[in-house]
Write a structure and sequence with these properties.
330 residues; alpha+beta; Phosphorylase Kinase, domain 1; Aminoglycoside 3'-phosphotransferase, Chain: A, domain 2; five-stranded antiparallel sheet; three-stranded antiparallel sheet; 10 strands
């Protein structure tokens, strides 16, 4: 929904904001609508809740954010603000919104110093969430549950032949055969039994450079918990690797990955079983990136390379599974 200044004024009145304000749209983010609201010297973010987000999904996110703060998570996170009705969710014109204080910081840049710091942040996050019990249920399909994903790819391939193909379509169609083969590998992988036996804890779900904030050379905060849910903890690690540590030719930066694992293990060790299925989870994350970057990023200039790089990386992980396990286990 597009919001006018009058609409925003009506929504913000629920947060007792009646003074003049300025509005800015974030530069990043493709799957949700945010507005940065500046009032005098303070800023808050207003987020529209997507139609496909259930009440359970939102309440899970709010409770996780609240319990992270209560349990001493030292980094800044987007804790929701209550409106004047003492509720976190505001309804307006058949849409739902929530707000949080703007989290200041610059975007994360990869270097030897920051790779250790982000590994420590993720490990501290998981160490806390392992102890957290959330009463709301939010569980999405795991890395081996890709039947629906396979159907989505096939639907794209079965579009009418008379539709003119864009560059994005051509890249997607060119690599779809590999995507389907890798999907079938995961669907029938015996490693699913290892996954099923691993503990599922609240994860952040979207830890990568665009959601990590840095202040004065130190990681200060993490935002965008929209994909948080109960899952194995290496899902967060693999998402970070796929979005941040993949080189231009679709290969993992092994040096950075080893540094990350080494630093993570100092705070919260990975098990032998988690490392054993890590290549599979990397493949699953790369396949998801391949599909969703194609679906959501058609108007983004840099997404052509991202689409191709993701499927190349998925294929590289498949071909180097044993090497990856060996390299990252030492």
């Amino acid at each position: 929904m597009s919001l006018s200044n009058a609409d925003l004024k009506n929504i913000l009145a629920n947060y007792k904001i009646i003074s003049d304000f300025k509005v800015k749209k974030p530069k990043t983010g493709i799957s949700h609508k945010n507005w940065i609201i500046k009032i005098n010297k303070s800023k808050l973010v207003l987020r529209e809740i997507r139609d496909d987000e259930s009440e359970q999904d939102i309440l899970f996110e709010f409770e996780l954010l609240n319990k992270l703060t209560k349990n001493g998570f030292k980094y800044k996170i987007p804790n929701p603000i209550k409106n004047k009705s003492k509720k976190f969710i505001t309804e307006y014109k058949n849409k739902k919104y929530w707000a949080y204080n703007f989290v200041e910081g610059d975007l994360f840049k990869l270097n030897k110093h920051n790779i250790k710091n982000i590994a420590k942040l993720i490990a501290e996050f998981h160490k806390i969430t392992k102890t957290i019990k959330i009463k709301y249920i939010k569980k999405w399909p795991g890395p081996y549950s890709l039947s629906r994903f396979r159907l989505q790819i096939e639907e794209e391939l079965n579009k009418p032949k008379n539709i003119k193909l864009t560059t994005y379509d051509k890249i997607f169609f060119k690599h779809s055969k590999i995507a389907l083969e890798l999907t079938d590998y995961l669907l029938f992988s015996p490693n699913k039994q290892i996954y099923d036996a691993l503990p599922k804890i609240p994860i952040q779900g979207e830890i990568y450079s665009e959601n990590i904030l840095v202040n004065k050379n130190k990681i200060s905060g993490i935002i965008d918990f929209e994909h948080c849910r109960n899952e194995i903890k290496i899902k967060d690690i693999c998402r970070f690797f796929v979005r941040t540590l993949v080189k231009t030719k679709g290969q993992l930066d092994i040096s950075f990955a080893k540094q990350f694992i080494k630093e993570y293990n100092k705070t919260f060790s990975l098990s032998k079983e988690e490392l054993l299925i890590l290549p599979d989870v990397l493949i699953s994350e790369a396949l998801n990136a391949f599909y969703w970057d194609y679906v959501l990023g058609k108007d983004k200039k840099d997404f052509k390379k991202r689409i191709e790089n993701s499927i190349m990386f998925a294929d590289w992980c498949f071909k180097n599974r044993k090497k990856l396990i060996k390299e990252l286990s030492h």
